[in-house]
Amino acid sequence: MNSTTYSIPLAIGAIPPYLQFVAFGCVLAVGYNIWWALVSERRLPGFPVATLEGQGLPPKESYFKDASGTIASGLKAYAGPFQIITGTGPKIVLPNKYADELRNRPELDFNEAFRKDFFAHYSGFDGFRASLDNPTLIPSTLRVKLTQSLGLVTNHLVDEATSALHQLYGEDREWQSIAVKQHNLNLVARLSSRVFLGRPICRNEQWLEIAKNHTVDSFLAARDLRAQHFFMRPIMHYFMPHNKNIQRHYTDAKRIISTEVERRKIRAQILLEAGDKPPKVSDAIGWMVEMAGGKKVDYVAAQLSLTVASIHATTEALTIALLDLVSHPEIIPQLRKEIIEVLGDAGWSKQALYKMKLMDSFLKESQRLHPPSDVSMNRKVMRRLTLSDGTVLPKGARLMVAARFRDAEIYPEPDAFDATRFLRLLNNTSSNSPHHYVSTSAEMFAFGTIRCHGKHACPGRFLASAELKIALSHMLLKYDWKLDKSDTMPRFFANETAHMTNPGLKLMVRRRTEEINLDLDVDPDLIDVED
Ligand code: HEM
Fold it and tell me: Which among 121, 152, 363, 505 is least buried, having the fewest CB atoms inside 10 angstroms?
C-alpha cells in the first residue's frame, strides 16, 4: 500500500465522529439539493419549447431577454400548450381558450406556484411567507371585512387624498415637471396604509419608506435570486443587497406596528376602566385580528404581504391612467364633467364611486392596453390533470394562461385607446356584466381569474378601484396635466413577464381651481372608528 492510499482513511479517522456526522449530513443535503434542482428544473416532456423568433437564442436567455416576446412567439408557433424556460425552471403557457376550463380546478394551486418564484423559504421574504403559511387570512380579510367597510373606507381615502395631494403635488399655478411615478407611489402608499394601519401610521415617514421600498426590494431580491444559479441561491441570498434591505424592513416594521398595537391596547384599557366600550377601529390590523380568531399570526409579516400585493400594482395603474390622460387629453373635460355631476349631487360615498361610469370604463381601457402582464393564472399542478382535449398537465408542473387584451375578435380596433369602449359594452349588457373595472372574465383577467366567483381573483380590486377613482377625481379637478415634451425616456419596460412604467417618467402639472369642494368637512377623528 503506498502512502496516498492509507493517508485518506487516516485523515478521516483523525476527524472527531460528530464532525464526520455533520460533514456527511452536509454532503447529503448538497446532493439532495442538486438532485432536486435538476429534477425540478428539467424541461417537461411533450411540450414544445418557445424561444424568441429568429434570434437563435437558448430558451432561458430568450426568456430573460424578452419574456413577453418569447411567449408571443410560442403563441404564434403552436396552437396548443408550450413551455418557456424561466429562471426557476420550465412553465407551461396555455392559450386563452383553456382559461375557463382551468379556473377553480382543485388540482391547481396559486400559492405553491408563487412559493417557488418568490423564495418564501428564504430569510427576509417574511411577507411572501405570511401569505403562504396562512393562505386564506389576507384574501378572506379583504373579501369579508374590507367589502363590509367600503363605505367607511371611502371616507378614510378621501380624507387622506385631501391631505396628501396638497403636500405631494403642491399649490404652484405655473407648470412644473415632476417625476410622476414617485409622486404617485407616495400617494398610494399613504392611501393604502390608511386602510391597512390607520391614521397615525399612514403618515409616519419611516413606515412610508418601508411601504414604498419593501415592494420594490422584495421583487428585486426575488428577481436577483431567480437570475442566480440554483446551487448558489441558498448562500447568495444572505449577501444580496435587496435581501438585506427586506430583512431590515421587517425589523423596523415590527417596532412601528408593535408600538401601535400597544397604543391601542392602552387606549382600550383606559376606556374600559372608565366604563366605556372601546371603539372598533376599522383598518386591516383590527380586521385581521378578528378574522384570525385567536390563531397565532405574524401580523407584521401579514402587513408587509398586504403592502407588497397592493401598493406597487395600484401605483402602476394610477401612473398608466395619467399617461393615458395626457396622451388623450380630449377625455379630460368629459371626466371632469362626470366627477362634478356625481359628487356635486350627493358628495362622496361608495355609491358615488359606482356612478363614475366613464371613469370606470376609462380605467378598464387603460388596463386593457397596458396590463400588468400578458399572462395570468400562475398555478402549480398538485395532481396530474387531463384536460378535455386530452392534454395532460403533469404533477409538479407550473403553468400560466395567456390573456386576449388586444384581440380584434373581442375588441374592434384593439390597438386604439377608446375611453368609452367598456361604457358602451356596459350599456348594452345586463348589470352583472364583465365590463366593470373590477370584473374579471376569461379574456380580461388583469385582476386574475375568472368571473367574479373565480377563487383567486384579486381580493383587493375593490379597494384599488376606490383608491384610483378618489385619487383621479382629486388630481383632475385640482390639477391640469400635460406631457413633458423634454422627457424622451421609454415609457415602459419589462421585468420578465411583468410590464411597468419607467420610474423616471416625467409629466407637467399645475394647480387649478376645482369647480366643487372635494375635501371632507368632518373631524377625521369621527371617521376613524366604526359605529
Ligand atoms: C390595480 C391594482 C391591482 C392589480 C392589477 C392586481 C392584480 C392581481 C392579480 C393579477 C392577482 C392574481 C390573481 C390570480 O392569479 O388569479 C392578485 C392577487 C391578489 N391581490 Fe391584487 N391587484 C391589485 C391591487 C390589489 C390591492 C389594492 C390589494 C390589497 C388590498 C391586493 C391584494 C391581493 C391579494 C391578497 C392577492 C392574492 C389572492 C389569493 O391568494 O387568493 N391587490 N392581484
Answer: 121
Q: Judge whether 344 and 317 are in contact, CB under 8 Å.
A: no
User: Which tens digit of pLDDT belongs to each residue from 483-528?
Assistant: 999 988 889 999 889 999 999 999 999 999 999 999 876 655 555 5
> Would 277 be classed as within a structural domain?
yes
Residue nearest to atom 37 of ligand 1 (CA): 458
Looking at the CA of residue 454, tell me the nearest atom of ligand 1. Answer: 16
Cβ 476 vs Cβ 332: under 8 Å: yes
Task: Find the domain containing 125 and state its range.
Answer: 80-530
Q: How many domains does the chain have?
A: 1
- Structural domain contains residue 30: no
CA of 133 to the centre of ligand 1 (A): 17
What's the 448 CA to ligand 1 centre distance in angstroms?
Answer: 7
Q: How far apart are CA 258 and CA 248, in angstroms?
A: 16
Q: Ligand 1 centre and the CA of 16: distance in Å?
A: 53
Q: Tell me the ipTM for this assembly.
A: 0.98
Read off the CATH number of the domain in which 239 is found. Answer: 1.10.630.10
Q: Whose C-alpha lies nearest to ligand 1, atom 39?
A: 456
> Sign (positive/negative) of CA torsion 100, 103, 105, 110?
positive
- What band does 132 get if pLDDT is binned at 50, 70 and 90? confident
**Would you say 458 is a known binding-site residue?**
yes
Q: Is 34 among the domain residues?
A: no
In-domain check, residue 438: yes
